[in-house]
Amino acid sequence: MRTADVVIVGAGPTGLALGVDLARRGVDALVLEKADALFPGSRGKGLQPRTMEVLEDLGVLDAILAAGGPYPVGMIWQDGERAGEHVMLDRDEIKNAAGDSAFTEPWMVPQWRTQEILFERLVELGGRVGFGQEVTGLDQDDTGVTLHLASGPDLRARYVVAADGGRSAVRRALGIGMTGETVDPNPVLVSDVRITGLDRDNWHVFPPSGDGAGYMAICPLAGTEDFQLVAQFPEGSVLDTSLDGIRKVAAARSHLAPEDVTEVRWASEFRPRAALADRFRSGRVFLAGDAAHVHSPAGGQGLNTSVQDAYNLGWKLGAVLSDGADPALLATYEEERRPIAAQMLGVSTGVHRGEVRRGAATMQLGLGYRESTLSEDTRPAAATPRAGDRAPDAQEADVRLFDAFRGPHWTLLALGTEAPALDLRSVHVVQGPPQQPYGQGLFLVRPDGYVGWAGESDGALRSYVTRLGLR
């Protein structure tokens, strides 16, 4: 029987990001993908600032920057004429919310290209992906999980991560339900197309015409020659995703002629919904990404929340499998990520319904884990950043803190005080004078860039490391 420390089911952004994180930690992980190739469509195309920071740590930032571009300004069309600009992002708000981040607004990269970049990084690190591998069931016991595949022998793993999408076969095999709602009963067509007759400087928006048809939006996909065409239909409509069908929609709702749509490269349909898995874990199996939470695409929160699931789970699996940490650490994955997923579901639904503006709430820089059992702060309550907060970037002498954080290690900031010796297998120490916005003290920054412990007593810090069973 084939074996691996971790089997990740699904080679989407979640599964590939987790594979990259585990590979750089030396964990024997295998990614399984039911399809014969990576997903070919644009779907989730917006990378939020916090996700950009994660991708920098995973070693793919340069490729992501080269592959994409900023969001274009929206252009409203009426009767074949430009009727005015539509600004989707509250740029003043996001500039203020960016704070110390190097990334001040979303970066557009089609999902298929993000996946290619993560796949290339995974292969570079020696990771493995098995295509055409469909999981049909699983059994687990005290020492591991046995996966049953549609073709080939069973596969044995110490842990399994279900990253196989909203219709997750693994989640269903576990009997974990999802609680949610239909955000909008109207079906939506989404397709990647080649179009002539439209500039690539604007996101072209065609409002409903009043004849019962819904809106249409055509967005140039940065870094490609494609456009993403999105069109809403009345409830109960049967959608035609063929070239002729999409040509008819484009011609009926805009000034474009049918032949202006020259090619359909990918097309699908969906009904916007929001749903949250009742649990993110069953024994040795974890749910991540769309297998754990399904978002409306409005506001670009689904892919981003999913990649950050992987980022949270990756270091914890690595700590248990490679660094000898107490397996109880893995319980904090659901503790930390399920409330975040619930919060971001509210944001994405609010954006879809016009109740939330794309701005600070969608950037994900302010998310954190203050209530987590992994967060311990021994300073006065007014002191910031708090344990559980994203560790801010800053310049310490000739060292950028985010450069010091980058990698699979912990980071100990000793600012205005002596750095104690810690019994951690991998810790990078930054020693310096008091530094804003941290002030003076000791700050133990987790491998995923959040403050785990903050205070002034090295004894309390050692107790924290011991309490969590870290090595």
Task: Work out the radius of gyration.
Answer: 23 Å
Low-confidence stretches: none
Helix content: 25-40%
In CATH terms, the superfamily of the largest domain is FAD/NAD(P)-binding domain
| Main structural class | alpha+beta
- Gap between N and C termini, in Å? 31 Å
Strand percentage: 25-35%
CATH architecture of the largest domain: 3-Layer(bba) Sandwich
CATH topology of the largest domain: FAD/NAD(P)-binding domain
Q: What is the number of domains?
A: 3
Shape: globular
Number of helices: 12
Beta strands, count: 28
Q: Tell me about the biggest sheet?
A: 8 strands, mixed
Task: Please summarize what this structure is.
The protein is an alpha+beta fold. Helices cover 27% and strands 28% of the residues. It has twelve helices and 28 strands.
Walk me through what this model shows.
- The chain has 471 residues and is an alpha+beta fold.
- The chain is built from twelve helices and 28 strands.
- Strands 1, 2, 8, 9, 10, 11, 19 and 20 form an eight-stranded mixed sheet that branches.
- Helix 1 runs parallel beside helix 8.
- The protein is globular, with a radius of gyration of 23 Å.
- The two termini are 31 Å apart.
Question: Which key features would you list for this structure?
Answer:
471 residues; alpha+beta; FAD/NAD(P)-binding domain; D-Amino Acid Oxidase, Chain A, domain 2; Glutaredoxin; 3 domains; 7-stranded mixed sheet; 28% strand
